[in-house]
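Q: Hand in one record:
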Amino acid sequence: MKTFSLALRNLLRNRRRSLTTLLAMIIGLVAVLIFGGYRSNITYGMQTGFVQGSGHLQIQHKDYFLDGSDNPTAYGIPKYQRLIDVVKHDPVLAPMLTVVTPTLQLGGIAGNFAGGVSRSVIALGVVVEERNRMLSWNDYGLTSYAHLLPLSGTSQDAVVVGSGVARKLKLCNVLKVPNCQQAPMLASADGKPAPDDILALSALEKTEHPQEDETRIEMLAATAHGAPNVASLSVVKAENMGIKAVDDVYLAMHLSQAQKLIYGTAPPQVTAVQIQLQHTSQIPAAQARLAQLLATTFKAEPLEILDFRALNPLYGQTVQFMNSMFGFIAVLIGVIVLFTIGNTMSTAVVERTVEIGTLRAMGLRRSGILRLFMCEGILLGLIGAVTGLLCALLISTLINHSGLTWTPPGYSYAYLLLVRVWQDTNLVIGSVIGLMIVTVISAWWPASRAAKLMIVDALRHV
């Protein structure tokens, strides 16, 4: 305790130099924490979005992810309900689960034939209540941009489309889509809502719908036997999906409607069973248990397990990029702080050479000199760490309440600019420990040099 008291008094002897060193440490730590908090918000935000949309894990037909995304009939899971029941009631998996739900992805052509337009879409058949429960997952307490599907309580022919699809199909005005401009409607040549061949295909499936329903569209898809099939659908809402490439092709419908469109009266199938866990950290344990089930109970079926990272390569690429940027900035700031503290301690050793010689002559051992200067460096690090952490928390609070927004690459609307400092315990602890390590390393060499000074040489130093 006496050593620390003496070290503090030595730091106060030259307040300007100590303050300059502290300022460099504080600015460095604040920069690391703010950028680290920004990185954490992006990382956890992307993870939350992907887990809300695709779950933590998916069970798919083998090679569906690589080769079958455009061919759901060849890569479907026929006995999916049995698979869901086994997963839900497994004693190992059950405590981890939030949602286990089937989905069917299919491609087709959606047409607003009254407007004389059509476009290709990628439709997703879902169990609406389970899908909305997935969209409510927010384990990190982030600002969630997920919108619940407005299909609860609707008829089986109800669908939701992306705002880009609504614009292409000229439904912006009737659906009252904000910030959506469309060309004037073009009446079909014969005044009918669809060509005769399309109407004939859908005649067996569509119920009586008023001709004047301007939100009704037709969707053409290929059945399991390769024949075309058409469903008459009612668009209940258009939503901005955030990513333009997705927004321009997105269509969500009830799972039963999607199965009827693809399989008709044949036994229905799905393209994936999505599994959402309570926490992302449970993925390894859940994946290992699922692998055991597929190797035993379902060994006769060609199934595989994919986690959300494999399903969404953009996540891993973004995390790798942000980590490399954070690492570069942290190393750069660490080097600056290292040389700043080292220069301060070296200057102190030169100025106090006679004092060091006097202390040695009075009986203080070399270890005592080393301990004294190391304590000065550690005190600088502690003061800088505490002050830098408080400043980073203040700045992050100001940023989070500023209302500033930014538009990520490839996205179609802005997100709030947020940084997670206090919420990311690993970031705070790692940054503070890193600063202390840099401080100890930078103080060690000058302190060691001071301890090795010869008493006679130190006393006659001018």
